[in-house]
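Appendix C: a fully annotated inverse folding record. The material below is reproduced so that readers can follow the format used throughout the book. The structure is listed first as tokens, followed by the designed sequence.
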């Protein structure tokens, strides 16, 4: 513990000038929920100033996010150092009811760097600010979902060694996130032609028919054009929020390029209307 305190003191002392007149943002946490902090680079070190706050992160394999929990007590501070040397500092406080569980932290929030910032580094920071904030949010939240082991139910279909699964449907802000898995258990590579989502409506009346309406994703995360034999890929489609009546359903259609191993997976209105 003393070792970490000394390291923290050295870092803070070295960059005291960078913190002058800078008001630190406050992050709230409690002891019943995990508050996730997503950083622009993998976390190398994270330290809290009080024992009633715990910041956990993967110390063996560097990852982009850490989890904060807190017990009732006085406020403290959190110091995080990324792999590239960027330093982030926050006030942390206990709060019984939390209104925010995920923090996506841009590089511009860094209070300094362990290494001197040269001209090239300044250009990188400037470019980072120009990145679309929404796309950045989608990217980090999709990565977070792929690291979670959560399923909405058994939504799966297979044909000729190809297995299409919807692992999870998550609602966040104004979007639905579809966590999808494609397995190639066959002896041939699978070349993807398209993976599309449709809304299918059953027309009532004497002449019953089906009408399909294509849904355009806002963002596609980790979509590959080829799945090698014996391999599996997991990806996320971000869709505008929608709900379905009981006479409608969603159809996830997987189509093979120059092949016939095609799958249409039905997703009931119950799964769409009751996401995680």
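Designed amino acids, in order:
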């Amino acid at each position: 513990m003393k070792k970490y305190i000394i390291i923290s003191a050295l870092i803070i002392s070295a960059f005291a000038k960078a913190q002058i007149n800078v008001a630190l943002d406050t992050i709230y946490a409690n002891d019943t929920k995990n508050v996730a902090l997503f950083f622009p680079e993998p976390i190398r070190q994270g330290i809290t100033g009080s024992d009633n706050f715990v910041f956990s992160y993967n110390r063996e394999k560097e990852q982009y996010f850490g989890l904060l929990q807190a017990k009732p007590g006085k406020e403290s501070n959190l110091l995080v150092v990324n792999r590239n040397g960027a330093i982030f500092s926050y006030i942390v406080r206990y709060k019984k009811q939390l209104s925010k569980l995920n923090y996506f932290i841009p590089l511009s929030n860094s209070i300094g760097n362990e290494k001197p910032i040269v001209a090239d580094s300044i250009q990188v920071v400037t470019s980072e600010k120009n990145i679309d904030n929404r796309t950045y949010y989608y990217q980090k939240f999709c990565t977070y979902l792929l690291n979670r082991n959560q399923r909405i139910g058994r939504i799966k279909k297979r044909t000729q060694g190809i297995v299409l699964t919807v692992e999870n449907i998550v609602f966040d802000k104004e979007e639905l996130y579809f966590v999808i898995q494609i397995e190639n258990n066959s002896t041939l590579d699978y070349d993807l032609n398209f993976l599309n989502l449709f809304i299918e409506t059953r027309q009532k009346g004497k002449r019953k028919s089906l009408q399909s309406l294509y849904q355009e994703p806002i963002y596609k995360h980790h979509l590959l054009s080829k799945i090698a034999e014996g391999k599996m890929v997991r990806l996320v489609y971000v869709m505008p929020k929608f709900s379905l009546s009981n006479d409608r359903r969603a159809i996830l259609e997987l189509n093979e390029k120059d092949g016939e191993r095609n799958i249409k997976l039905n997703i009931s209105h119950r799964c769409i209307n009751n996401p995680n």
